[in-house]
Design brief:
The complex is a heterodimer. Helix content of chain A is 23%, strand content 34%. Chain A is an alpha+beta fold. Chain A has 2 domains: 5-226, 3-Layer(aba) Sandwich (Rossmann fold); 237-360, Beta Barrel (OB fold (Dihydrolipoamide Acetyltransferase, E2P)). In chain A, strand 1 (5-14) and strand 2 form a beta hairpin. In chain A, helix 2 (93-103) packs across helix 3 and helix 2 packs parallel to helix 4. The model of chain A has no long low-confidence stretch (mean pLDDT 92). By secondary structure, chain B is mostly helical. Chain B is built from 17 helices and no strands. The chains are: A alpha+beta, B mainly alpha. Chains A and B meet through strand 6 and helix 2 of A and helix 11 and helix 12 of B.
């Protein structure tokens, strides 16, 4: 069973402090949505408001057809997996999983059946009589998910559930979560500040910053067409290069932009009405910068630091006027620190942001 | 490696001869009065009147303990102490747990102010309120009743403080998980939170029982009839005069008898007491 979730004009205040400001969002049944943003952006608060652990100051939240923001947490039809798992330490795994079902007076046979089925799904059948302190981090995580599964909720809420796991286990659990979502087909909301988790798990990412939603889109949409400078800087590793714009000229093919460091570049961008070059920046991803073959001349860049990542290397370089730029090169490149390389730019991959940080896109986007 | 070394490092007390000697001397100083009391309890009065050093000489006798069985009212006082100390322990555990949970987890008006007022209770000496309390209990006719002996001990500011701090130390996500599991507030308290505070309950229970058992001041005021005496008051009343020229061994045997339950409580809950005294229980 999965349900849609609709958040309409939701605001959250703590006294005079506003932590969420007029948030609206519609999540489709069965969708895997990730709330992504830096610490303090309000993503966990929003999740907790859906769960009923925080009151809504203004606005409404609906799960399926029912408005739930006035209901207690246990009656909203959602299940949550906490960052710390929040297992009951004095209960066995089986008791942890069945506690919620006992509270709604479900027949014992049905409880037993559900616990057994969830334990089989998560491969924790052999752990049912153990207490949480006798489990590893990964096993506790599975139990926490199992506790959610047995309730057969309309939606699953995950609050940074992978952050307490080591890197290897995090990667494996990420994959298992994706498989679980495919198998259950349930609506899932996942909160994280890790963009890799967001990009790999999400059907859609909701990027939050400074109390607001910055952008909602598929992983590739937010990566390739960031709506704001914040999104462009937050998504992608290394972060996008930003160059201050000093002048623009409107050409038929798009805007010609003059920047500090590179000079004038022809872009495919047709800015919206009222665009002003004052305070604008040009954004270029490291992998979109074209490294020219030896003998060809472009903008010279001197390598200061080289990070070798195996399949690719990141060159942290400096232009002739001292402007810093990060460029991605092939992992097999023999480039060493101090070498110069010549680079050029593909007009279609350039991003333009105005003073307020709003993106101006290529024609039609 | 450092952590491992630390784990296997022998306790300094067991390897350092100086510390070992100091600990030994302190143990003798602490145990000597107890051993002497036991010695007194197994001597007859004539010998004790010759000098207390007779404790170290034969003969010894069980006559004082036989006298307890035959003539003393100590069993009645023992029963009174048991009822009062057990009642206070149960009451303090129930009230402190409920109050601690409320202060730690529930939202209600003047919560902080009320908690501060409770904490003030730690600073008010019993002697300061004893006249008013005596008058009040007199009005209600509570003197010379079990309820009258127990009631003052139930308002344990220390208990409320200890339980509040312990409940606060439990991660809030545990209650939130239970809320999402559709548990009522009472069910969260009863099935989730209370079992997690068992170490604190054990600590508080032991301290309350020992305090109730050893309390002398309030029973001395409230219990004026001999059959309502607690052990402490009863044994003190057996002392015939300051010099105690008679029944010294009998008095000592009653004191030993009175100490036995405390010893039993200590032996059963030794681990919890050590943890409580070392401060580990409230971590």
């Amino acid at each position: 069973m999965s349900a849609s979730i609709k958040i309409s004009n939701v605001t959250k205040h703590y006294g005079a402090l506003t932590v969420l400001d007029d948030i609206s969002l519609a999540i489709q049944p069965g969708e895997f949505v990730v709330f992504l943003g830096p610490s303090g952006c309000g993503k966990s608060t929003l999740l907790r408001m859906i769960a009923g652990l925080e009151d809504v100051s203004a606005g409404t939240i609906s799960v399926g057809d029912a408005r739930v923001d006035t209901l207690p947490p246990g009656q909203r039809g959602v299940a949550m997996v906490f960052q710390s798992y929040a297992l009951y330490p004095h209960m066995t795994v089986a008791q942890n999983m069945s506690f919620g079902l006992e509270n709604i007076k479900m027949p014992k046979e049905e409880i037993k059946r559900r616990v057994k089925a969830a334990a089989e799904t998560l491969e924790i059948g052999h752990l049912l009589e153990r207490k949480p302190q006798k489990l590893s981090g990964g096993q506790r995580q599975r139990v926490a998910i199992g506790r959610a599964i047995v309730k057969e909720p309309k939606a699953f809420l995950f609050d940074e559930p992978l952050s307490n796991l080591d890197a290897a286990l995090r990667g494996r659990t990420r994959l298992e979560l994706a498989q679980l979502h495919a198998r259950l087909g349930s609506t899932m909301i996942f909160v994280t500040h890790d963009q890799v988790e967001a990009m790999t798990l999400a059907d859609r990412i909701v990027i939050m910053h400074d109390r607001r939603i910055e952008q909602i889109g598929t992983p590739m949409e937010v990566y390739q067409k960031p709506a704001t400078r914040f999104v462009a800087s937050f998504i992608g590793s290394p972060a996008m290069n930003f160059l201050p714009v000093t002048a623009v000229q409107n050409n038929p093919g798009g805007l010609a932009v003059t920047t500090v460091g590179i000079g004038t570049l022809q872009t495919a961008i047709h800015p919206q009405a009222g665009f002003s070059p004052r305070g604008a920046t040009l954004g270029i991803r490291a992998e979109d910068i074209v490294v020219l073959p030896q003998g060809q001349t472009g903008t010279p860049l001197k390598a200061e630091v080289i990070e070798r990542l195996g399949d690719r290397s990141l060159v942290y370089g400096v232009l002739e006027d001292g402007t810093k730029l990060t460029v991605e090169v092939d992992g097999r490149s023999a480039l060493v620190i101090g070498d110069s390389l010549h680079i050029s730019f593909d007009p279609a991959t350039l991003h333009l942001f105005d003073e307020s940080g709003q993106a101006h896109r290529t024609g039609g986007d | 490696m450092a952590a491992n070394n630390k784990t296997y490092k022998p306790d300094a007390l067991t390897t350092n001869p100086t510390l070992l000697w100091i600990a030994g001397v302190l143990s003798v100083v602490m145990m000597a009065p107890v051993a002497w009391l036991v010695g007194l309890s197994i001597k007859n009065n004539q010998e004790l009147m010759l000098g207390t050093d007779s404790v170290f000489r034969l003969p010894y006798t069980a006559v004082n303990y036989l006298n307890i069985l035959q003539t003393s009212r100590v069993f009645g006082w023992f029963f009174n102490s048991l009822v009062v100390a057990s009642g206070q322990t149960l009451g303090v555990l129930v009230l402190s747990s409920l109050a601690g949970y409320a202060f730690a987890r529930l939202e209600f008006p003047f919560r902080r102010t009320l908690f501060v007022i409770v904490l003030f209770g730690l600073a008010v000496p019993e002697q300061a309120v004893i006249i008013a309390r005596h008058q009040m209990f007199n009005w209600f006719g509570l003197h010379n009743t079990y309820l009258g002996l127990m009631l003052p001990g139930l308002s344990s500011a220390f208990g409320v403080f200890l339980m509040t701090q312990f409940f606060r130390a439990i991660p809030k996500e545990i209650d939130e998980a239970a809320l999402l599991d559709n548990a009522s507030q009472f069910r969260i308290f009863w099935k989730i939170m209370l079992p997690l505070t068992l170490p604190a309950q054990a600590t508080l229970g032991i301290f309350t029982f020992l305090h109730g058992w050893n309390d002398y001041w309030w029973p001395l005021i409230s219990a004026t009839k001999k059959d309502m005496f607690t052990l402490t008051v009863g044994i003190a009343s057996s002392q015939t005069n300051f010099a105690q020229s008679e029944g010294l061994g009998f008095l000592a045997s009653q004191a030993v008898f009175a100490s036995l339950p405390v010893l039993v409580v200590y032996l059963i809950f030794q681990r919890h007491i050590v943890t409580a005294v070392s401060g580990g229980a409230v971590k």
